[in-house]
Amino acid sequence: MHAQADIATLRSVTIYGLWKDIKTMRAAQFTSYNGPQALHLGDITTPNITPRQVLVRVAGSSVNQMDVMEQEGKMKLFTGRSFPIGTGVDFAGTISAVGAHVSGYKVGDRVWGYVGFRRPGTSLAAADYIAVSPHCLSPAPTTIPPVEAAALPLAGLAALKGFAGLKAGEKILVIGGNGGVGSTAIQVALALGAEVDAVTGMEEGVAKHVGAGQTFNYHTTPPSSIPGRYSFILDTAGINLLPYRALLALGGRFTTVAPAVMDVLRSLVTRGPRIRIVSAGANSTGLAWLAQKVDSGEIRPVIGDIYPAEQVRDAYRAYTAAESAHGKLVISWED
Fold this sequence. Notes:
With 335 residues, the protein is of the alpha/beta class. The protein contains 10 helices and 16 strands. Helix 5 packs across helix 6.
């Protein structure tokens, strides 16, 4: 059985004349649980694809909180202790090879994707190539460059998951509206027909620029001073959430896409609405919806900076050092 799979894999790659050109690739890997300083860029063997996978030439990958938590050893139960470990969970690029049992995709197709939460291998999205199943992909937007598109898959899918059940006309509040996930969440909510306000950090510009109505600086405006009530609150920052529960309308829902575990637990044992943690999963339907909204002009990536692959460690250091994020950090894997 394994021999047949290997033959099918090799055949699917050789058909397109690519195998001889992609034996090795660059990949970002961490070699210990010591944060970004243990992250290194090196040459490794390009992954084989199974008959049910495609090989994507990555144009861009983005920096996410999940990556940093893994690098800091906060997810050892899933990542294990066998090093090196790859990093990066979302990407955009072009299909370089197609497994024999894959339909709907061909070499040269522009795609983007999110691999979801899975046990990391020696390479993931922060690499020249990624082997991935089609259910983690959709056709990429055509109106923005692939490197910029890489900023959106995780952020967009997290927002869609957090807004599950949202109806047009509902009034919502996004906490952390200046960040990469928060600014995307504002746009997703607007595309779903909601009215959106935002809690921001040091500046209002990003949240306002992407369409938020009122913005409230959390340094100067406590929750008790925010007027109105919201049917949905989505947190992307994970900072002192319990006081914001008072802003929920009767029957309102409060979700967080940040690892705000203690606030979630406190919400279970104190009076007030429960706060739920949600996380994005691989979702080709959601990615296709996001791509359509990008191409219609309703959603645009908010990018803080783009780093070349050779500066991948600097990108993750910048992420961990940022006191108030303004847009996503993206790594370019283009030549």
